[in-house]
Specification:
CATH architecture: 3-Layer(aba) Sandwich
Shape: globular
Number of domains: 1
Strand order of the largest sheet: 2-1-3-4-5
Largest sheet: 5 strands, parallel
Helix content: 40-55%
Structural class: alpha/beta
């Protein structure tokens, strides 16, 4: 095997996918980032979820937002739903693997937060389940997807679909997009967030909640 030729082929393939994604995804990505900025500015939290390599991407971007990124040191509110093995295995054992994100979302996510759901196929059932719940409860969702977007593309508020069939290349574009998100948010909030009096975080399960809908004006109606 000519390893140099293989390396060049791999790099060139990645570049091609990135260039195609920039053309196809620029507008929806910009819209999703603007929404994420509003979410944080209004006191919300970004949650990230995915399976396999996408689970690693979820924890990766959360760590970038909480920790240091570029030269920005101040943390921003971000949580990966992929890292607590005790929760994940207990829910998978007691309920099913299809509910590992749904159960966490019901306990942690509130109106005014945002879910980033990462799937190279767009067909992950555990992500679809949480997307359905989020839609029912008017919680903002972003789908970072691949191929044709799958079922998730039809239910999330902001579908960002990387065209192509090569899972590795899709994953490479996904982490580039997540780094772009981190860069945009860190630059928007260079000094982090000010500590203020606790605000009401509305649990979707509470009847007749009083909700500040000022941040909902650009919510995709899907």
């Amino acid at each position: 095997m000519d390893h140099q030729e293989m390396i060049e082929e791999t790099f060139n393939s990645s570049v091609t996918h990135i260039e195609t994604a920039l053309t196809k995804c620029l507008t929806p990505l910009a819209s999703a980032i603007r929404r994420s900025i509003k979410i944080i500015d209004n006191g919300g939290t970004l949650f990230f979820a995915g399976n396999g390599g996408s689970a690693a991407d979820a924890s990766h971007v959360a760590s970038e937002l909480i920790g240091s990124f570029e030269h920005y040191k101040h943390p921003l509110p971000a949580i990966a739903l992929t890292t607590d093995t005790s929760i994940i295995t207990s829910v998978a054992n007691d309920f099913s693997y299809d509910k590992i994100f749904l159960q966490q979302a019901k306990g942690l996510v509130r109106r005014g937060d945002q879910l980033w759901l990462i799937s190279t196929s767009g067909e992950s059932q555990n992500l679809y389940n949480v997307a359905v719940w989020a839609k029912e409860n008017k919680i903002s969702t972003v789908g970072l997807l691949g191929r044709k977007g799958g079922e998730l593309a039809h239910i999330v508020n902001y579908p960002i679909t990387i065209p192509g069939e090569n899972t590795q290349r899709i994953q490479e574009v996904h982490i580039l997009i997540l780094h772009t998100l981190a860069s945009a948010l860190k630059r928007q909030f260079p000094n982090g967030l000010k500590l203020e009096e606790p605000t009401q975080r509305v649990n979707p399960g509470i009847e007749k909640p009083v909700i500040d809908t000022a941040h909902e004006e650009d919510m995709d109606p899907k």
